[in-house]
Design goal:
Largest sheet: none
Strand content: under 5%
Order of helices and strands: HHHHHHHH
Helix content: over 70%
């Protein structure tokens, strides 16, 4: 006899893993926004966002003003969802044949999202990342667009 609570917990865990873009995910997501988020693999954003916080704190000149908090939040958005999401999405695009064998539940090989939708996502994430990087350069009054070049 199966335990319904254990099955529900396993199902919830599999759906969470799917949304975060981790192995052992549940198949069958239908919301395009959840599929797009899954392509961006949010689990990979954590070290990048943490790196922004640690970098700001270790600089020795950071003060907790509203302006600086907005700059840090903008850097976190740039490093995590936008540029890491861009690289994860483009990686899934190029790995679609391999994923069809090893991870057929992933959005592209499963057919949950079309190739034109993936390309649109890649372009939007890249352009948004470059635009925010340029905005950060302007905000910091850089003579040379350092952040934009790094992005």
């Amino acid at each position: 006899m199966s335990d319904p609570i254990a099955e529900q917990t396993n199902d919830r865990s599999a759906k969470t893993r799917q949304l975060l873009g981790m192995k052992g995910a549940a198949p069958g997501e239908t919301s395009i926004w959840k599929i797009r988020l899954q392509l961006m693999k949010p689990i990979t954003w954590i070290p990048l966002i943490w790196g922004v916080v640690c970098g700001a704190a270790s600089g020795g000149e950071f003060s907790w003003t509203i302006d600086n908090i907005f700059k840090i939040a903008t850097c976190m958005l740039l490093a995590g969802p936008l540029l890491a999401g861009y690289t994860q999405t483009i990686n899934d695009f190029y790995d679609r044949e391999i994923d069809a064998i090893n991870e057929p539940y992933r959005p592209i090989p499963s057919g949950a999202i079309s190739i034109p939708q993936v390309i649109t996502q890649v372009v939007v994430l890249l352009l948004a990342g470059i635009a925010i990087a340029y905005g950060l350069d302007r905000w910091a009054n850089h003579q040379f667009p350092t952040i934009t070049c790094i992005a």
